[in-house]
Amino acid sequence: MKNRNRSIRVFFVFVLWFHFQSVLIPASGQTTAISGVVNSYYRVLEIIPAKACIRLSSTAGLTVNDPILLIQMKGATITTTNNSSFGTVTALNDAGNYETGTICSIIGDSVFLFHILENTYTPATGKVQLVPFARYVSANVTDTVKATPWNNSTGTGGVIAIYTEQDLILNAPVYAGASGYRGGNFQQSNGTCSDALPASGYAYNASNLSPQSGAAKGEGIADVASNQTGGRGAPANGGGGGNNHNNSGGGGANLNAGGTGGGNSSSGVACTATLKGEAGRSLSSNSGLKIYAGGGGGAGHSNNGLSNVSGANGGGIIFIWANNLLGNSQSINASGGSGGSSLSDGAGGGGAGGTIILHISNYTGPVTIEANGGNGGNSNNGGNIGRCFGGGGGGSGGIIYFTGSLPAITTSVTGGAAGVESGRDVSCNPVPQSAAAGTAGQVIPDYTFTRSFSPASYCSLILPADFITFNATIVRENVQLKWEVTDPELISHFGIERKTTNGNWEFIGEKQAIDGQSVYQLTDPLTITGHHYYRVRMIRKDQSAVLSAIKAVHIKPATAFTFYPNPANTELFILRKQAATAVLKLSDLSGRTLLQEEVRSTRYRLVLPVLPAGIYLLNMDGEIKKLQIR
Fold first, then answer.
1. In what order do the strands lie in the sheet with 519-524?
2. What are phi and psi of 458, to 5 degrees?
């Protein structure tokens, strides 16, 4: 991907400033069970770039140091001429612009970010929203995590954003399917029809039902006027609605185009014009700097009203940042919905797949990542004499971004299938006016998030020279300490401290601050087994002091064990460095002991009881390790 010619780090970094201890070996109390809607959504009223200030409809529930996503959902300019050019994007403007940041201050209705904004936004016309990341040490998805569907009236929703410092365990899906841009809604027309004007145009008022000359369009990145909400013209990535009489809706789009809706192939009766809903138009990602929800499918034209022939919603947007993802054969889904099928009417178009961004270090166990296009609705002509109508167009596949190389997991961005026409009358035109499938989406590795790293002057004034991150990890049996700070030019030096066994803090090293250098590290060659705690004392040039958060590591004993295979089914083998006698316990995530055996050897075969698929814990030699049963 091409990077913008401004300051973007090679690796996307959240500014996370936790004020609680973070143990690197997770205990049961650190894993939070999550389900349902875990995110909140805030409508942006105004942005003051000079202060990295964002005015919101409310700041209730927000806290300092919250990592957030800022994204503009609308604002593209399209051609509105009532001809075949209707809906062509003439300028994306700020639609699709996004970035992440961290809140440094909250005053009244405004939040201030640590860093200046990387992009421009137009809240007055572009429907910009702020979404705080739901953050945890570790999280266990015990029931489906969902997005609140996009709501064009409030300008919020359609996004899932999750950060876990350690593990995200999937025992249920993460689902933003059909949570993106709205599909065209079904409204029943009267029986009046025409093979020419007024029903052959590209834009109508979908609420005018006497007759409804064009069914409702699907929603996309450009809002349309009320007198242009219906008709076959596709508004940017939204699918066009089927025209009078009984033509079907087109599929929505993302970075790839949707499929055209099916048309009227009737013969020997009135109302035989083929005026099918146009396919949603593909969008530009601006080299990955813009992201979108999936476009909605257009509705089918209907006068019988025997079934709901709405277009389907597009898929939403999912951001997941985790050190480890334990897939457990579950899914992360931002697919588009399927269009409504018809009975002797036009059918609805499928919604496009949305966007998924995964910043995950390790993947354990099978998981499916999908942003498929929704299928077009089927069209059952019911054997009506001389009446034949094609199905709805399929939605395009969405986009899956990986910040690293492509992992060995299952991904799917297939385009939605075209709706199938059935029950054709023999007297109809021998050439059906079939719908088209949506085009496939894209899977893109080595993606770089958009993130400003230039400090905002306002936050530098109110919070000078502070910690951004501090982490402690074990590297080759040594403890590596690494921290990042704001405003290094205001800092004199750092003192690194370790807690002793009697509970006191001892000085173990010093680092001088260097103007312009924000990242520092120190290695402690500690080899004593057990839990060890570290902190960094920052001494500013004005002699004031700031302490970092406390971080802990666990040095494993010489008797530490490993095991294989993982995932397992009926048995596993345990390897130890020493043959000392130890008790091995197998338990579930609630702590209930399922098996307990005494181990005396360096290699031990453990026959597993019959267990449901899921995550379990092995406890021996002072260590707790995760075991996946499949």
1. 467-475, 478-485, 519-524
2. -65, -50
CA–CA dist 44, 120 (Å, integer): 13
Region at 123 (left for phi over 0; alpha for psi -120 to 50; beta for the rest):
alpha
Over the stretch 95-111, which tens digit does the pLDDT of each residue have?
Answer: 999 999 988 889 999 99
Contact 122, 113 (CB under 8 A): no
DSSP letter assigned to residue 456:
P
Answer for the pair 285, 95: CB distance below 8 angstroms, yes or no: no
* DSSP 8-class letter at 542: T
Tokens standing for residue 319: 């951001």
Alpha-carbon span 557 to 578, nearest angstrom: 10
Say which amino acid occupies 297.
G
Tell whether the torsion through CA atoms of 541, 547, 551 and 557 is positive or negative: positive
Q: Which pTM value belongs to this model?
A: 0.75
> What DSSP string describes 217-249?
PPP-SS---GGGSBSS---TTSPPPPBTTTPPP
- Tokens linked to 191: 């029986």
Half-sphere exposure of 331 (CA within 13 A, CB side): 15
Q: What is the DSSP string of 263-307?
A: -B---SSS-----PPPPPPP---TTTTB--PPPPPPPPP-SS-SS
C-alpha span between 33 and 75 (Å, rounded): 37
CB atoms within 10 A of CB 592: 7
pLDDT digit string (tens) for 198-221?
Answer: 789 999 999 999 999 999 999 999
Which residue reads 């994007």 in tokens? 89
CATH 2.60.40.1220 domain range(s) in the chain: 561-629
CATH topology of domain 561-629: Immunoglobulin-like (2.60.40)
Provide the 3-class DSSP secondary structure of residue 29: helix
Q: Name the superfamily (CATH) of residues 465-555.
A: Immunoglobulins (2.60.40.10)
Using pLDDT thresholds of 50, 70 and 90, give the confidence band for residue 460: low
Residue with tokens 């991907």: 1
User: Angle at the Cα of 349 (from 348 to 354), degrees rounded to 5?
Assistant: 135
CB 461 within 8 A of CB 532: no
Residue located via tokens 């267990």:
611
d(CA 24, CA 605): 29
- Given a cut of 70, whether residue 410 has pLDDT beyond it is yes
